[in-house]
Design brief:
The protein is of the alpha+beta class. Helix content is 25%, strand content 45%. It contains two helices and seven strands. Strand 6 and strand 7 form a beta hairpin.
């Protein structure tokens, strides 16, 4: 399993960040690798929400089946995902003065045919770069 954790300071109060983050369907507006999100459950927020997320990085596309496993208002959203990569991810929000520290944590399992731990070693810096760009995109969206 490969652990990745990145964070960014967003110059907005936590409740403002949460009001955007809680809308899973709008994640495609700030996640450059997320092409589409299609809900499979009737609910669109909270534990038990399920959705398919089509992701594209360069020429590679994958569809992850995702389930919300944690939902703490204005604090955290956690998901499990199954697809090309399997794992668990979390968005965490914390006050830092009047700003918000947002952390994105992922624990991913790379498939054997992706060279397992070697593939993870190669992919990790690219994923960090993409996710940092995504968090910056969210910050820009909230500032504008």
């Amino acid at each position: 399993m490969t652990a990745i954790s990145i964070d960014i300071l967003i110059p907005r109060p936590r409740q403002i960040v949460w009001e955007e983050l809680r809308h899973i369907d709008r994640h495609v507006h700030w996640m450059s690798d997320a092409v589409s999100i299609d809900f499979q459950s009737q609910q669109h927020e909270g534990v038990g929400t399920t959705f398919d997320c089509l992701t594209k990085v360069g020429p590679f596309k994958t569809k992850d089946v995702m389930s919300v496993t944690r939902w703490d208002d204005a604090v955290a959203i956690g998901v499990t995902h199954h697809g090309l990569f399997t794992g668990h991810g979390e968005f965490l929000l914390a006050d830092e003065g009047t700003d918000t520290r947002m952390t994105w944590r992922e624990n991913l399992v790379f498939p054997w045919w992706f060279a397992g731990s070697l593939g993870a070693f190669v992919a990790r810096p690219l994923l960090c770069l993409i996710w940092k760009k995504n968090l910056s995109g969210l910050a820009r969206l909230l500032i504008s």
